[in-house]
Amino acid sequence: MPSLSVLVTVLTLLPFVCLSFSPESPTHRRLLVLLDDHSLQSSHSIFFHSLISRGYDLDFKLAEDPKISLQRYGQYLYDGLVLFSPSAHSFGGALDVQSVLDFVDAGHDLILTADASASDLIRSIAKQCGVNFDEDSSALVIDHTNYAVLETQGDHTLIASDDFIQSDVILGKKKLEAPVLFKGIAHSLSASNSLVLKVLSASPSAYSANPNARLSHPPSLTGSAISLVSVLQARNNARVLISGSTDMFSNELFRSAVQKVGNSNKFEKSGNEQFVTELSKWIFHERGHLKAVNVRHNKVGENNEPAIYRINDDLDTHIEIYEWSGKSWEPYVANDVQVQFFMMSPFVLKTLETDQKGQYHTSFKVPDVYGVFQFKVDYHRLGYTSLSLSKQIPVRPFRHNEYERFIPTAFPYYGASFTTMVGFFIFSIVFMYHK
Asked: Which parts of the sequence belong to the OST48 middle domain (predicted)?
């Protein structure tokens, strides 16, 4: 019999397990927020309150808290991790770099921020996600052309950037008018990782260097090669946001008026709040999250799914695709969803037609090749979770009694055979009776 303490622990964890993220109903999510200092909870309260207002349950802890644990009894206690602890040299409890990576590998989401005090721990996590921060720990992003003017003074390390990724799925349909204020360190994307994307880039005049020292050698990162904010969508559809600035999420920069040097346009409020809020919606799967259901196929004119097809059969294939809107599943409408009839390589590749209500279908003829085939939908589109579905079905040749009695294409051979027989008969008569 289990002890009373074990039963109490299991009953305590049960609500958290039941409320964990599910692709079928991505709601009621729990986030662990690790802070360098509790003061960040108040200085970044607008961002945290936006998450709470959208139904997230935030658990705030200091990064060195010895009671930190992402999982217990094989179950993850949280659905997302927010690391606002750039200077942490180690995490408390059983949390380490590998634990964070395993958390992402299990399909969970991560927000990681850094600044000039970024530790090797934070840099290591970012590197494993395809992002390389500037190795110079004293370097900041500097831009003498696109910096922000606050009141009467300009700070060349306070970048005003409006070089956003062109994706309504990631940043929302409402256009960002005001530039985003950024004060932090630069990073570049790993050439070996094709899954990581720039969301906010520096201008061609930016560079990474120590603002308090004279340049003795060319900067290692310059121009548009500098990424300020990047995102990663892993192959398991886990999403990661990496920012070189923790201040970008602060109340101060959310509320700051912004004006670029040399630009007469002055905005009463920076674009930080809209940018961060919309980006967090994408990171936590409130947008761009797809699911496919009711994948089926059948012969034309029939409704039941057969166990086997015959070569040259005419068939229909159907699939329903929906997108999570943040509150409910809505029909996903696109004109680039394709199905493959696949054996070693695609024998048939067709674009599915949609009825604008989330249902996709197409018809085609089974190729004149028998073997084991797959109906395969492998859908990848910028900003959306990938869909990878397959259904296996064998294809057989004609049975001996299913062939046509007389094949039209063989009529010339039939004619030749009968002509030969008739000719031989005539020749025999002539040969025997001719004098």
From this structure: 297-435
Amino acid (1-letter code) at residue 270: S
Mean pLDDT of 246-260: 89
Q: Which residues, including other chains, have CB under 8 Å from residue 317's CB and lie 6 or more apart?
A: 296, 297, 339, 352, 361, 362, 363, 364, 375
CA neighbours within 13 Å on the CB side: how many for 304?
A: 3
DSSP β-bridge partners for residue 349: 340
pLDDT band of 410, cuts 50, 70, 90: confident
pLDDT band at 198 (very low <50, low <70, confident <90, very high): very high
User: What DSSP letter does each residue of 31-56 carry, written as one string?
Assistant: EEEEESSTHHHHHTHHHHHHHHHTT-
Element (H, E) at 229: strand 227-233
**Integer CA distances (angstroms), 159 to 77, 117, 268, 427, 432, in order:** 37, 18, 17, 102, 110
* Short-list 240, 237, 248, CA closest to 110: 240
Q: For residue 309, what are its two tokens?
A: 């097809």
- What amino acid is encoded at 417 in this protein? S
CA 317 to chain centre: 26
In whole angstroms, give the CA distance from residue 137 to residue 278: 30
Based on the number of CB atoms within 10 Å of its own CB, is 26 exposed (0-12), middle (13-18) or buried (19 or more)? middle
Q: Looking at this protein, which amino acid is placed at residue 163?
A: D
Cα(274)–Cα(173) distance, rounded to whole angstroms? Answer: 11
